[in-house]
Recover the amino acids of this structure.
């Protein structure tokens, strides 16, 4: 008799997992229900465990999903489609993953169970949607929804990267230019000024002092302290409390905080809309949305909302109490719940915030460019002025 692992919920909503021997999944489902448990996930123990496996580019997974949707929709068997995609995939690591999935499916596993063994390639959201597609007989439609969802998320990531990359690179170049001038150019002027036999202007003397510090062992100490601070922040961010506090600070940053909030709301509503549209139960969808929130503050609000919904509340009520969502969002979700069109309303919210993110990124880019140019002018211009002040001072003394 085969042994199955299961994840189920008790009558009061608590999650419970375990293993049990049974003839098949249906028999195990009935046995769990007799115990007062509602099964959410059942898998047969096959001796194969989930492994970390290789990392695969999300763009490759997107192409795989869209192509597999087309193949299944065309009427080709799933195994044949997997063989085709494994052959034409350029990444050999991904091809190996697809081959393994095909082998598992051929061995009697469901497609979703085979995907679940590769968590670094296929997320919980992906596996849950495929499982719902298998149950409803609409696998090609669910795969198409997945591809659209992944495409929108990739576009969102690209916009955020473009907004963050430009200022970081430009600021780094400014600091490198300033450091080069201070470390190599200023000392040469300092040797010339030493022969003047006069007190140097305060800006010039400060610049020479900074140059001396950067060329001494103190510079290494400053760099070491900076590295230690960065490592300490990263270690702190790996704790649950630290991650929450850092994300909370990030959401309250000027300019960037509003952008991050819009991104988090767009991600949450898009994820929840896609899951509910594909047939995933609302409580399971909220759990997946919590894990994919990308921000611990919003993950906590989603977790609290899930607990409230389990107790009989609507989704809009706990989200409104959290204070993290604009009233427009919670009211639209409330209307969607009352009219039975929650997924459509969530999709409209996500579309709106996607456009808001695009506008915010464009505005941020146009704002940052002149600020960085002005900063470069101030830093480089300040260094040049400080270097020429003693020369101008000496020329005025000579004229007198």
């Amino acid at each position: 008799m085969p042994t199955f692992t299961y994840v189920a919920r008790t009558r009061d909503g608590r999650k419970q997992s375990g293993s049990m021997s049974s003839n098949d999944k249906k028999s195990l489902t009935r046995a769990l229900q007799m115990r007062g448990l509602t099964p959410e996930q059942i898998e047969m123990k096959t001796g194969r465990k989930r492994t970390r496996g290789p990392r695969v580019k999300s763009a490759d997974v997107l192409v795989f999903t869209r192509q597999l949707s087309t193949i299944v929709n065309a009427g080709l068997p799933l195994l044949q489609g997997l063989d085709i995609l494994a052959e034409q995939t350029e990444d050999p690591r991904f091809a190996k993953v697809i081959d393994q999935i095909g082998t598992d499916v051929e061995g009697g596993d469901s497609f979703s169970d085979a995907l679940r063994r590769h968590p670094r390639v296929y997320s919980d959201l992906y596996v849950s949607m495929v499982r719902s597609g298998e149950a409803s007989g609409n696998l090609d439609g669910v795969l198409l929804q997945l591809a659209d969802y992944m495409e929108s998320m990739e576009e969102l990531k690209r916009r955020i990267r473009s907004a963050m990359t430009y200022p970081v690179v430009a600021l780094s170049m400014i600091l490198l230019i300033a450091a080069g001038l201070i470390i190599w150019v200023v000392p040469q002027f300092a040797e010339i000024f030493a022969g003047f036999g006069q007190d140097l202007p305060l800006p010039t003397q400060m610049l020479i002092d900074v140059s001396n510090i950067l060329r001494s062992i103190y510079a290494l100490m400053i760099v070491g302290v900076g590295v230690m601070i960065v490592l300490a922040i990263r270690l702190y961010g790996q704790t649950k409390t630290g991650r929450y506090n850092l994300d909370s600070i990030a959401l309250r940053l000027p300019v960037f905080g509003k952008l991050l909030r819009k991104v988090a709301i767009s991600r949450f509503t898009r994820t929840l809309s896609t899951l509910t549209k594909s047939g995933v139960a609302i409580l399971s969808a909220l759990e997946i949305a919590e894990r994919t929130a990308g921000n611990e503050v919003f993950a906590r609000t989603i977790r609290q909302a899930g607990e409230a919904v389990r107790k009989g509340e609507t989704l809009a009520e706990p989200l409104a109490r959290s204070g993290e969502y604009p009233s427009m969002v919670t009211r639209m979700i409330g209307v969607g719940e009352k009219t039975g069109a929650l997924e459509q309303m969530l999709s409209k919210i996500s579309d709106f915030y996607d456009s808001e993110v695009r506008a915010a990124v464009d505005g941020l880019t146009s704002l940052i460019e002149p600020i960085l140019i002005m900063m470069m002018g101030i830093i480089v211009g300040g260094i040049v002025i400080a270097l020429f002040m003693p020369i101008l001072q000496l020329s005025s003394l000579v004229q007198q």
Remarks:
- The beta strands are 3-9, 15-21, 38-44.
